[in-house]
Each structure stands twice: as structure tokens, then as C-alpha cells.
Amino acid sequence: MPARYDGTSYPEPQIASSLLKLFNNPELNSLTRRALQQNPEVALSASRLAEAGFNLEKSRSALFPALTGSTGLGKSRTSAGSFDTFDYGLDASWELDVWGRLKNSTRASALDQAAAAADLASVRQSIAAQTMQAWFDLVSTTKLLELAHRETESLESTRQLVERRFEAGTASFADLELTRADLENARADLERTLDSRDQAARRLKVFLGEYPDARLTSTGDWPSLSRGVPAGLPSDLLRNRPDIDAAYQRIRAADSRVKVAHADLFPSFSLTASTGQTSTSLSRLLLGKDGVYSLFANMSAPLYDAGMRQAELGAAGERAQQALESYRSTVLTAFREVEDALSSEHYLAREERARQTALAAARSAEKRTRRDYEAGLSDLLTLLESQRRVFSTEKQTITLHATRLNNRVALALALGKGI
């Protein structure tokens, strides 16, 4: 690993230590908490963790003796007549873990549980981040919808201006048709933006674990970007990212299962004991007379299985190798996500400043062009082009700011900052 990240983060005056502390926005934080409580992916991951806990208890029980009780009632008929029989029995068995097979099996289950716990933490962080980004998308499309309304109103105003000039004989019919074409295109874009806003609301409702209708609305206010995310050192990532921790625990679990498969090649030892009684009289059975007791030590060893156990050992070794390669892939992907987000922090901030400057210049040019057109000093095409440039640049500015917010969340998620 390098000593530092290649990406250069955009300096911020404040530092956020978790996803929920990134933006001081009550609406956003409330939605994120609702998603963490109601999202089915979080519930599914929590159920898998609970299942892993039960699997651990099941595996751990093999380390202890097992007791089995039985009782029976029967009727027999002989030449001398018929009679009832009563019996009970108690059997005990215990496998001696000479080669550590049971211990390693239990250890593998415990590591599976640790991996499931890390998976749950990773899912919670991912759902929180995706909910935030879905909300930014809703805010962005809400702002774009407001802009589309303003664009339609502006083009309608231009159409009315050209229509007055056409009636006065100072504008051509072609000019009037051009303004009508731009107005209708703006109305078409407005309908498309309405659809995008509704889809953004539905996506957010799914993250909230609710029916995906489009009734969810937003105030349309951007959260502040004043809080940055400290990158730290690359080595910190291995401790902070829960998905990396989960992959690491799966390596250890796979290694323990290799040891289990290896122990299966050797003999197994067990102790069994049983006690019981059979009687033709229930009273004699209850008195406990004439009982039978036994105690055995058993050994069983594989003599021939056509290479099945050796094949299982080889397969277990390959599964451990797969877990290792999966871990390496997870770590490399994590480093790439951090580097991408850090680099984007720098470039997106510079791009937004340039877009804001371009937007201010476009608005100034549009005002001047409109005055010139009204005074007869400019043609219609110049006015329409200046209007298109204003609204196009403002659309880009809105989309770019949403991208910066999304990237800030992606950086916090990539660094494993938690919730």
C-alpha cells in the first residue's frame, strides 16, 4: 500500500466523522433513519446474522455429550398367553475431538457469524448512502422542474413579444414560428422532467421500505457542503470498511474448514453409554430392578471411500484460495473507490466554480440581448440562443451540484466512516 492516497481532497473547514454528520439537514437525516429501520435489505441482512448465530450454537453443541431418552409399551402373545411389556432407555454419546475437527468447525461457524455482522454493518452503510443519494436526486429533479417552469414562462414571454412585433410588421412569420417551436420543446421537456421527478420519488420510497408512489416531496433546498471527510491513511481502510472485514473473516472461516476436511482423513473416537429396563409389569419398571447398563469406546476410520475425503480436502483448499482472492479484489475495489471520490472532490469543486461563472455571464448576456431585440438592435436568433444558453447552463449547474453531494457521500462510504 502507498503511504498516502493519490487523490487530493478539496479542503473543508469542518470535519464529519460519519454519514449522518455529513449534512446538517433534519429532513435528510430523518429519511435516512427511516430507511435504516424499514428497508428490507437491512432486515434481510439482520436475519442472516441471526441465522449465523443459530448455526454457531448448533456447531458448538457437537463439542458436548448428547443424551437420548426412549420409552415404549408393547403387547406380546405366546402359547402361554399374552402379556404387556414396558421399557425405557437412556443413551449417551460423546465424540472425542482428538484431531480438532469439531473445534475448527465451531471456529468456522463463529467466523461466519463475524462475517455476517460485518455484512450487516456494510448493508446499513450502503442503504444510508443510497437513501441520501436518492434524496439528492429528488431535490435535483425538483429544482430542474422549477427551472423547466421558468423556462416555459420565459419562452412564452418571448413568444408574446415576437407576436406583438409580428402584428406591428417588424417581425417575420418565421420568427414567430421559431419562438413557438422553442416554447413547445420547453413544454415537452417539462413533461419529461415531471416524469423524472416522480421516478426519483419512487426510488426513494423503495429505500424507505414503503410503497413506491410519487407522493413524496422535498423542500428543494440543498444541504450544506461545508463538512468534509478526512481521508486518513490507506492502511486505515482495512480496519474501517466492514465489507473488507467480512471478506477477511471469510478467509479465516475457509481456513478452519480446510482443517476440518483434513481431520476427516483420520480415525474418530467416541464414547457411548446406555441404560434401560424391560418389564412385563409397570410397577417393576418403576422400581428400577433388573436394569441393563453398557459402556463402549468406539473408533472408526475411513478405509476406502474412492478418494471422496481427499477430494473434499482439495475442494476446501480451493475455497480458501477463492476467499483470499475475493478479499484481494474487495481491497483493491475499496482503494479505487476512495481514489475516485477523492479525485472527484477536487475536480468537481473547480468545475462548479467555472459553471457558476458561466451562468452569471449567460444571464447578463441574455438581459442585454433582450433589451437590444426590443430596441431593434439584435435579431431573434441571437435572443433565443442566449435564452437556451442560460437555461442549459443552469441545468448543468443543478446537476453538477447534485453530483458533488453524491460524491461526498460516496467518499464517506468508501472510507468506511459508518453511520
From TrEMBL:
Residues 173-203 form a coiled coil. GO terms for cellular component: plasma membrane. InterPro entries: MdtP/NodT-like, OMP_efflux. Pfam families: OEP. It is found in: Cell membrane. One of its GO terms (molecular function) is efflux transmembrane transporter activity. It is a lipid-anchor. Gene3D superfamilies: Outer membrane efflux proteins (OEP). Keywords: Coiled coil, Lipoprotein, Membrane, Palmitate, Transmembrane, Transmembrane beta strand. SUPFAM superfamilies: Outer membrane efflux proteins (OEP) (SSF56954). Belongs to the outer membrane factor (OMF) (TC 1.B.17) family. This is RND transporter.
